[in-house]
Amino acid sequence: MNDTGLMLNGLVIGRKSGMGEEGSIHTYSKRLFMIGGRELFSLAGKKENDARWGRCWRWRKYSAREDHGMVAEHNYLAGGLDLKRLLDFAGLSEEEKCGRLVFAAPNYMAVVDHPLSGRYFFDKNGHKDETPAIIALESMQITAGGTTIASKARKIYPKLFFGQRDREEINQCSFVHGLCRIQPVDLPPAFTLYLGQRLWISLSLADLIVKGCERRIYDGGSGGSHRCYGIDLYTLLVSYGIDTELSQVYAKDAAGKRTQLGPVEKGRYLLTWYSAYETKEAVIENYTDLKLYGDGIILDDFISLHMPPRISSGGPLPVKMPWGTEAEISSASFYCAVEREDQRYYYYFSQEEMRNRYALSEVRYQYDDHQVEKIVNCRGLLLSDMMDSLCDETGKRLALPEDWQIQYMEEDAYHTDTPTYIDRLSDLRGYNRALLAFEKKECFVRPDRYHENEGTFRSLELPSVYRNAMSANEAAVKGVMGVIIRERASTLAPKGYKLILLNEGDDGSVIKEAAVRGALDGMRIGVRPPCLARFEAVDVSGRVLNVGEDAAVRFLYREKGFVDVSAQGIRRTVYASKLKRYRTVIPESLGEVESLVLSGDALILYDDSDVIGRPKRNLFIDKRGIADKTTPFGYGNLVMYRYEGWYLEDFLKQLGITYIECTAVDKAGIKVRLSETGDCFVAFRHSESKGVPYNTAVYKRRATEYARPRLVSVYDGDTIMKDVAEFIVG
After folding, report:
1. Is 208 found in the same domain as 175?
2. 319 in a structural domain
């Protein structure tokens, strides 16, 4: 009897030793411990009264912080398993418990340094109390008052909570929920796949276990039938982008013996982590984590699979030398820093060079973006090709070691030091397939009105590196200025430089000031004036900046006309920055929208809301738990548009114009007579939810600037006209 698609329901904990208890699972190597789903369900209900796990139950407070362009701080009360006691029970050594641990859900993971000690709960006054980590089955968010429970949610699948080292530490995004796997970051691989000489993927036993389970019966020869538990080899390979029709597939055991396999087809081979005799009690032994069954083969002590290399269509790589002239640095849009022999080498790349001297690739990435399954096709330069082209001053290839590490330097350096954003060079050449993307096309596994498949490629707004990863955070590293490669990654925390944009026509007033941290201290970098919707740079050429203490670069901008206004036979150009009065936002406040709920003009979304219709004024308030108690509101279900600008009457009042009627003309010459002028809003910007339906928190909202006005209905937020070129006032 064969059972396919079984799921191992529970929490798996990997360890290096095979000496401890296994819990609710059996493996050859005994290097796992598992708490089953039924045990978790029982514990969630009985808490400290649970017969087996109750003595590990704890209630603790946690402070948390995140920064997605807006700092947000939260406090939680959580109940669950004390992490240290759990890991003790699971048989992890002191070295494993006190090191770096992986905490993974099915769709994302976090790596936490030393989660068991030196971590604190900080109250609003900055006082701290040490708070050990727990694996929570129940969690509650605490209001600013410190006593009222704002929400409560029980989860069968646990959630990680751990304290902060200091009040500024970002830890909220590492509170992994839906937790299914814990393991040391350096847990040895159970399965390794090579394409030619190139390492494609290596997986620990814990990695494999959580991917699912099949049970099959195989003939074990004279010993009788074997009841086997494992994962279908075809299914595993396909999930990592492997063409299973490749010939000459070999399996290797721990002694180095190679066994040729037949075609890897669905259902043909089973990679097993445990097997037992059907008719007798004797143990089936194995020296490594895995065996391979199928096609008349029982391969003991399996360690790796070997397949032919992928055929590359690219030609020879260019010879890329370090440093660069002033002009080369100024025109560069990406850099690569390499630390070797106590020196840091810098390589500068322009868009033209990357497009013309390297073979560009098209790679497909599929990942979970806050519970929305995306398929993103990207065109750009594989970072493995970039790395392989690097040479020293003599023109000799660097040939950097496979285990050296690479860190991605984002503009804000937000993830630069995050372990899940640090790759080995072997990762770039393997399944990771990191690519500096120039264009992309997004599609969705389940398209809907919010997520429509794109038919053509489009340029990226920010330079981004895409990688094969479980979640959107790790898969799309946005705003990447460069990378640094060295033997071992370490905390960088670069200070970078200050970017200051000034308005030439408004006495040099500051349009924007930002800290750019994607440049390494001590390097030289080319900085060009960024594109702005309503301004153009006076000088479009770049500058070369020496990054160091108090480094800053200033660019002067000239404002472009926002819209023309014609009245009494006189046509004049209006500049948005000059209109300083009456500026407002629609809808203006949460209270305003809440007051419209009873009349049916607005609607509140809750976690248990049924199918939602459109309220009369298309106004919504999001009070779901996923909004993290930030209560976003605005026009449009889940999108929550809010517009910034002026009521049309106030817009014209600043120009000294009173009117009886008004006509709007767009840039294509289409005219709309505005009969209900009190319902017209002249917008220069809007904000909206970062993603729907599950990424709507206020501190993640994104803004879009307009070069020309957008005319919006105050009543329901509908767009009356985009890109207004002229208002004709009668």
Report:
1. no
2. no
Q: How far apart are CA 493 and CA 656, in angstroms?
A: 51
pLDDT at 1: 42
Residues in contact with 225: Cβ distance below 8 Å, sequence separation at least 6, in sequence order: 217, 218, 219, 277, 278, 279
- Tell me the C-alpha distance between 134 and 177, whole Å: 12
* Nearest CA-CA partner of 574 in 665, 719, 709: 709
Q: In this structure, are 459 and 524 located in the same domain?
A: no
Cβ 309 vs Cβ 196: under 8 Å: yes
* pLDDT band per the 50, 70, 90 thresholds, residue 97: very high
Distances (CA, A) of 130 to 30, 120, 145: 34, 4, 21
Asked if 289 and 31 touch (Cβ cutoff 8 Å), the reply is yes
585 and 718 inside one domain? yes
Q: Please state the separation of Cα 382 from the chain's center in Å.
A: 19
Do 638 and 691 meet the contact criterion of CB atoms below 8 Å apart?
A: no
Alpha-carbon distance 194 to 434, whole Å? 18
Residues 6+ apart with CB under 8 A from 262: 268, 295
Sign of the torsion angle spanned by Cα atoms 71, 76, 81, 86: positive
Instruction: State the pTM of this model.
Output: 0.90
Do 242 and 193 touch, CB atoms closer than 8 A? yes
Mean pLDDT of 74-82: 93
pLDDT digits (tens, 9 = 90+) for 206-241: 999 999 899 999 998 877 899 999 999 999 999 998
Residue with tokens 């990679």: 271
pLDDT the model gives residue 153: 47
Q: What is the pLDDT of residue 148?
A: 53
Residue 171 included in any domain: yes
* Distances 372 to 46, 474, 633 between C-alpha atoms, Å: 34, 15, 22
Do 50 and 101 sit in the same domain of this protein? Answer: yes
In a domain, 665, yes or no: yes
The rounded distance, in Å, linking the Cα atoms of 60 and 368 is 30
Helix, strand, or coil here: 326? helix
pLDDT recorded at residue 69: 67
Quote the CA–CA distance of 337 and 231 in Å, as a whole number: 41
Q: How many residues does the chain have?
A: 730
Q: Which two tokens stand for residue 580?
A: 């300083």
Residue 318 lies in a domain: no
Distance from the Cα of residue 78 to its chain's centroid = 25
**Is there a single domain that holds both residue 433 and residue 350?**
yes
Share the mean pLDDT of the chain.
92
Q: Is 336 exposed, middle or buried (0-12, 13-18, 19+ CB in 10 A)?
A: buried
- Domain edge (last residue) among 521, 539, 559: 559
End position of a domain, from candidates 184, 209, 230: 184
Nearest to 16 by CA among 101, 110, 117, 83: 101
492/514 Cα distance (integer angstroms): 19
Q: Are 645 and 714 in contact (CB under 8 A)?
A: no
Q: Does residue 451 surpass a pLDDT of 90?
A: yes
The total domain count for the chain is 5
The whole-angstrom separation of Cα 137 and Cα 152 is 11
Euclidean distance between CA atoms 170 and 67, whole angstroms: 7
Write phi, then psi, for 358 (nearest 5 degrees): -120, 150
Residue 565, CA distances (Å) to 95, 489, 712 in order:
72, 57, 18
Q: Which two tokens stand for residue 475?
A: 């898969």
Distances in whole angstroms, Cα of residue 673 to Cα of each of 569, 645, 663, 712: 18, 20, 4, 14
Distance CA 170, CA 172 (A): 6
- Residue 433: name the closest of 397, 474, 383, 393 by CA: 383
Alpha carbon of 623 to those of 69, 70, 151, 264, 694: distances in Å? 22, 20, 11, 50, 12
Is 269 in contact with 277 (CB distance < 8 Å)? no
* Pair 63, 123: CB distance under 8 Å: yes
User: Cα(296)–Cα(275) distance, rounded to whole angstroms?
Assistant: 16
